[in-house]
Amino acid sequence: MDTTHEVWTLNAEGVQAVIAEVGDTTEVFDTVVGAAKSRPLPGSATEKYIPFGADDQLPYELKRLIDGDEVTAQCLNFNVTALYGAGIHTGETDRAAETWSARQALPMYVLDQSTDMQLYYFAVSVIILSADGKLINRIVHKEAPYCRFAEADQYGNIPFVYYANWHANRPKPEEIEKIPLLNMRDPLGDLKVRMGQEPDPRTGRKRTPTRERKFAVAARFPTAGCQYYPVPYWSSILRGGSYDEKRLISVGKRAKLRNHTSVRYLVEIQRDYYERICREEFITDAEKIAERIRREKENIRNFLSGLANANKVWISSFYVSPDGHEVHDVRVSLIDGKKEGGEWAEDVQAAANTICFAFGVHPNMVGAVPGKAQTNNSGSDKRELYTMKQALLKPMKDILLTALRLCFAYNGFRGTPTLPMIQLTTLDEHRDAKITQS
User: Fold this and answer.
1) Are 124 and 161 in contact (CB under 8 A)?
2) What's the Cα-to-Cα distance from 61 to each of 112, 119, 238, 396, rounded to whole Å?
3) CA-CA distance, 21 to 293, in Å (whole number)?
């Protein structure tokens, strides 16, 4: 949620109000009804791609929201490192595989993939074959925010990934990297068919080997109703309003602690409130718009000044979003002036716990949650919580390793790449941890 705020002094006694212009994160994810809408690919008259979100800016907005809150940022960091576990293991001694792995910077690759998988629920890799097409020489991570899927063909297969900087402005045609995407259901089989090593299932005959030497592999975690881009389950904190709740508490608390006089009111103003007023009054001139906004702010200030002395009522319109949440134009909340910033301690704790719950992270695993009374699990409880967390990541680990396992299988290496879990031990074992297969 994007917030900007001002602090107004309402009277000579120093009564203050925090005026916060807020966005509404409950509508960050649009509910997709029917087929996903495609857009023409820049520079092409025939190719189309699927935008990532209604305005094609969703991945950047999600990253901004995650980075904007200490609880969400730490929950993401914890989930990424837990998914990485003990790092890549193959379980076999294969000199060729070890030499190949040493050239791939696998720890960085896996952490990059884990970050995208936890944040966006999908990750994209690119494999680069040798000149003769017999071996995969390189595996490279491609950042999910810069990947867009092509529109699916008549068989439901997505033929390409378009890699470019889609932030803010549409990229130029020469800035878009077009990469053939292997079938998500069977990337190894698709690669062998394209390279003429196995018969095409549709024709029963082997193809002429393609000259392409670069292919994309998409690892996508299943979510309900997913068509192209998954909707992460953690995003419920946005649709449910928990993220907004915690951020608004932080805005009010920070403003109060920075201003020694008492802040009595928190006023939340919907970001497009002023724009709608000007539109309804048919005001288009820039100077008149600025004057109308100034006058509306003065109306709110006068209302709040009156609140300090007498009872008044502010009538504000609201609507109910498709998710069932009320969205108000203006909301005025009274803040208890007897405390210096501690009045929201229980609310902060509840909001933080809700966010941790949505990320599947126990609060004690990422540090103390703000609040007066803290429950502290024993060492045995924490050890079991950590073990349970890593065990629950097994499905995501298997999907995450799709591209790497494809490389091992295509190159004929022994062993299967896995991400073992770190098992914390008890004192009687005389060591801190051991590595076990999850």
Assistant:
1) yes
2) 19, 12, 12, 24
3) 13
Gap between the Cα atoms of 304 and 314, Å rounded: 9
Please tell me whether residues 224 and 306 are part of one structural domain. Answer: no
Start-to-end Cα distance in the chain: 37
Contact status, residue 221 vs residue 122, Cβ threshold 8 Å: yes
- Taking each continuous run of H as one helix and of E as one strand, the counts in the chain are 14, 16
pLDDT digits (tens, 9 = 90+) for 42-99: 999 899 999 998 889 999 999 999 998 888 999 999 999 999 998 999 877 889 999 9
Contact 403, 139 (CB under 8 A): yes
Domain range for 345 is: 3-25+237-366
Q: Which residues contact 291 (CB under 8 A, 6 or more apart)?
A: none
Statement to judge: residues 203 and 242 lie in one domain:
no
Indicate the pairing of strand 263-270 with strand 16-22. parallel
Q: Buried b / exposed e across 67-80, counting CB within 10 Å, b at 16+?
A: eebebbebbbebbb
Same domain, 209 and 283: no
- What burial class does residue 19 get, using C-beta atoms within 10 Å of its C-beta: 0-12 exposed, 13-18 middle, 19+ buried? buried
pLDDT grade for 306, boundaries at 50, 70 and 90 = low
pTM (2 d.p.) = 0.74
Cα separation, 413 vs 408, whole angstroms: 5
Supply the Cα-derived Rg of the chain in whole angstroms.
27
Per DSSP, helices labelled H in 242-372 are 242-258, 273-280, 286-307, 345-358, 363-366
Asked if residue 245 lies in contact with residue 307, where contact means CB atoms within 8 angstroms, the answer is: no
Q: Would you state the structure tokens that stand for residue 150, as one six-digit string?
A: 């092509």
Handedness of CA 359, 251, 276, 166 (dihedral sign): negative
Euclidean distance between CA atoms 32 and 19, whole angstroms: 34
Compute the distance between CA of residue 21 and CA of residue 274 in angstroms, rounded to an integer.
Answer: 10
* Residue 267 shares a structural domain with residue 184: no
Residues 6+ apart with CB under 8 A from 120: 59, 62, 144, 145, 229, 230, 232
375 CB-contact burial (10 Å; exposed 0-12 / middle 13-18 / buried 19+): exposed
